[in-house]
Amino acid sequence: EAGVAQSPRYKIIEKRQSVAFWCNPISGHATLYWYQQILGQGPKLLIQFQNNGVVDDSQLPKDRFSAERLKGVDSTLKIQPAKLEDSAVYLCASSLTGQTNQPQHFGDGTRLSIL
Amino acid sequence: AQKVTQAQTEISVVEKEDVTLDCVYETRDTTYYLFWYKQPPSGELVFLIRRNSFDEQNEISGRYSWNFQKSTSSFNFTITASQVVDSAVYFCALSLSGNTPLVFGKGTRLSVIA
Lengths: 115, 114
Prior knowledge:
Helix content of chain A is 0%, strand content 48%.
């Protein structure tokens, strides 16, 4: 089966610019996650979707970050305006149901550099 | 709140040596799940294992083995006869039961030298 697809692979922007990332989960996976991984740290959950509804966005900086999953399949994560501290790898993951007994499968991530 | 500590930031071993990666977790819940993921240089996180809090049996999968000890809140990972392809960052993670997010440790970078 095809894995989680993410694009772009790399992105370099200047601070205060906007950027968007795209994720296509594994077919049939109802739950989709966006994680932020800052260099030298483990991934931190930004937002979790169950189909097209938000389950958890408590750690999403909502003044600058937004995410959507309109048709319950693909998802986009946007940052506007970007800050230097947003430099990180943004990982998308999906799981079949979102229950803990279902492992999360991760994409390759988008490496974002803010100048 | 949940917390995962991986005290070893970097480990370097020579090929064929055994190596153990430590993981200590904190949670007040009695039902939880522990995970290990591997992150090779390509960047994706590869799922290795999941254990629930009621199953303390050690597990072996090829050269990989895991030692879960609730008494010390530890879930350590051992690679036997390490290979260069094992070089990666390894993350331990914790999740409560149900629809809850993973809480990751900071990872241990393993370098296996030929």
